[in-house]
Design a protein that fits this description.
This protein is 21% helix and 34% strand. By secondary structure, it is α/β, with parallel strands linked by helices. Among the domains are: 137-272; 457-518, no CATH class; 524-556, no CATH class. The strands form eight sheets. Strands 7, 8, 9, 10, 11, 12, 13, 14, 15, 16 and 17 form an eleven-stranded mixed sheet that branches. Strands 19, 20, 21, 22, 23, 24, 25, 26, 27, 28 and 29 form an eleven-stranded mixed sheet that branches. A two-stranded antiparallel sheet has the order 1-2. Bound molecules: zinc ion (4 copies). Residues 478, 480-481, 483, 505-506, 508-509 line the site of one zinc ion. One zinc ion is lined by residues 9, 11-12, 14, 36-37, 39-40.
Length: 558
């Protein structure tokens, strides 16, 4: 190939471009260029990653009650983490021959239905250690006394958060590290006492702050550096500042009122085109210390990659969702890491040359395998000699190539989750009809209750000081979706300590809101509102924000 190519997505029929760099990557991986656009490819992967939709059910082996990301209606055999990782069952028992007269993916789908599945993605062997007293978590390791946290590790006393790591005594965070006493944060790191903050670094005891660093005691402030005692960007004497803050703090109605006031106020200030930090030659958002990334989001310390979401330490990888860590030459993977030469896998770890497989650890040269460890030269959970493996693998690869599937992720029919249970719906939401049109499933039946509340939203005291311990025995109802939820004793203690009103909305609505505040996983072409130079940003052209290019922004903000 000598030039970029315009292609039509086989699925959504939209145009997309395959760049020259892309062709050389695909060549390196030995796959043809994809027939699907990046967004359709993301969706295929996303239906293999359910982080936040949890169900209670039973381990099929030891019968203990557990939390699982698999709906009890799903056809899989679910094991608890201990049973799944034990030697009490043998994945090779389910091994089978490849039948070249039938589609490979049908045969892999049959294997998926019989091999036991691990209830949640929690690791007992994580480098961060086991999770302690933290049952309601997923994609998490090394956490202590945590509740409803997802995609995070090394936390203590952290609740209702996603993508938060190495943090303490915090709640309602999205994407951040080293938080202490923080609440309602999006992309806040190395901060303490930050409440309702976004894009903050090194901030202390501040609320309603946006695009700030090195500040302390600031309330309702935008684009400030190394300032203290500022209220709505105005410097105030300490006593006056404290008086104004005290008038709002702890009251639900005053907090909501200020939230709206701050939103309007913040629209008057220019924003950076992206929230990347120390990243060069990259497009995307929330990229940290990365180089040469294309259309990637929430990635740290990655290089020469494209279409990443929630990945750390990956090099030369395309289309990967979650994990990373010393990952190289991976294409179309979910939750895979410490691996190289991986194509189309969900959870490949410490492995090489693995294709179209699930839950493969410390293995090499496996194709279409499920839940193997220390395996070599296996296809559909059956062992082969090196020669036989090569011959058979080529046959399957040719079959997939003839269907334009080789190099893409598993087809939607194999998805273990419904679209609206997964990071797909969280990040690129669709209606039920749209989801079904794409060939994904939709779930109407979540394990949740509505109408069982013992305390109506209007009966919750406005100020946290007037809320009594008794609230932890009540059932509340979300003011947005009516879903019932509870306040745990640890959570109440946190609100009291932080002087925060009790939330009137359930975790799922709060989580969705934070993702909305984070912005879409989509890059728009726009012009710098100041110098008119073209920029790439997640702010759609019709959005009201004033968006500056990096140079203009840095000149404006001192
Ligand atoms: Zn498409
Ligand atoms: Zn068990
Ligand atoms: Zn809700
Ligand atoms: Zn500019």
């Amino acid at each position: 190939m000598t030039e970029a190519q315009l292609k039509i997505c086989q699925n959504c029929k939209r145009e997309f471009v395959i760049e020259l760099n892309d062709f050389s990557f695909y060549e390196k991986m030995g796959v043809p260029a994809p027939a699907l656009c990046p967004e359709c490819r993301f969706r295929r992967r996303a239906v293999f990653r359910n982080e936040t939709t949890l169900y209670s059910r039973q381990c099929a082996l030891c019968k203990k009650n557990l939390i699982s990301s698999y709906n009890p209606k799903s056809p899989y055999t679910i094991y608890c983490s201990d049973c799944w990782e034990s030697d009490n069952w043998d994945p090779y028992v389910f091994g089978r021959d490849y039948d070249s007269s039938r589609p490979f993916f049908d045969q892999f789908g049959e294997l998926m239905k019989v091999v036991p599945v691990k209830a949640t993605m929690v690791s007992s062997s994580s480098k961060l250690g086991p999770n302690v007293r933290s049952d309601y978590i997923n994609f998490a390791g090394g956490n202590k006394d945590c509740y409803l946290i997802f995609n995070g590790g090394g936390n203590e006393n952290v609740f209702y958060s996603r993508g938060v790591s190495f943090s303490k005594d915090s709640s309602d965070g999205y994407f951040g590290v080293k938080l202490e006493r923080c609440y309602e944060t999006v992309n806040v790191s190395e901060s303490s006492g930050v409440i309702f903050g976004q894009n903050a670094l090194g901030a202390l005891d501040s609320s309603f702050v946006l695009n700030v660093s090195g500040i302390q005691h600031c309330f309702g402030c935008v684009n400030l550096r190394h300032k203290s005692y500022h209220f709505l960007n105005e410097s105030l004497p300490k006593a006056e500042y404290q008086k104004r803050v005290a008038e709002i703090q702890g009251s639900y109605s005053k907090t909501e009122e200020f939230k709206n006031r701050f939103n309007d106020f913040s629209l008057k200030f220019p924003r950076r085109a992206n929230s990347n930090l120390k990243s060069v030659n990259s497009t995307g958002d929330y990229l940290v210390e990365s180089k040469n990334l294309v259309q990637s989001f929430e990635a740290a310390k990655c290089e020469d990659c494209a279409y990443l979401f929630s990945v750390k330490y990956a090099r030369d990888c395309y289309d990967i969702l979650g994990f990373g860590y010393d990952a190289e030459l991976m294409l179309e993977t979910v939750a895979s890491g410490y691996s190289s030469r991986i194509i189309g896998c969900q959870w490949a770890e410490n492995s090489q040359n693995i294709e179209y497989s699930i839950a493969i650890r410390k293995s090499e040269n496996c194709f279409g395998c499920n839940s193997l460890k220390n395996a070599k030269y296996c296809i559909l959970n059956k062992k082969y000699s090196v020669e036989e493996y090569k011959r058979l693998r080529e046959k399957i690869v040719n079959e997939l190539k003839s269907q334009n599937q080789y190099g893409l992720f598993f087809p939607p029919a194999l998805a273990p989750f419904a679209y609206n249970e997964t990071v797909g719906q969280e990040n690129i939401p669709f209606t039920k009809d749209e989801v079904l049109d794409y060939g994904f499933r939709w779930e109407d039946d979540f394990q949740m209750t509505i109408g069982k509340e013992t305390l109506k939203p209007g009966q919750i005291p406005d100020h946290i000081n007037d809320v009594t311990e008794n609230i932890t025995e009540q059932i509340l109802a979300c003011i947005d979706c009516s879903r019932n939820y509870r306040i745990t004793p640890a959570e109440l203690q946190f609100y009291k300590m932080m002087i925060l009103p009790v939330p009137r909305r359930c975790f799922y609505c709060r989580h969705r809101d934070r993702i909305k505040r984070r912005g879409p996983l989509k890059i728009y072409e726009r012009f710098c509102s100041y110098c008119k130079k073209p920029i790439k940003t997640t702010f759609a052209p019709e959005q009201p924000e004033i968006v500056y290019c990096e140079a203009c922004y840095q000149k404006e903000v001192i």
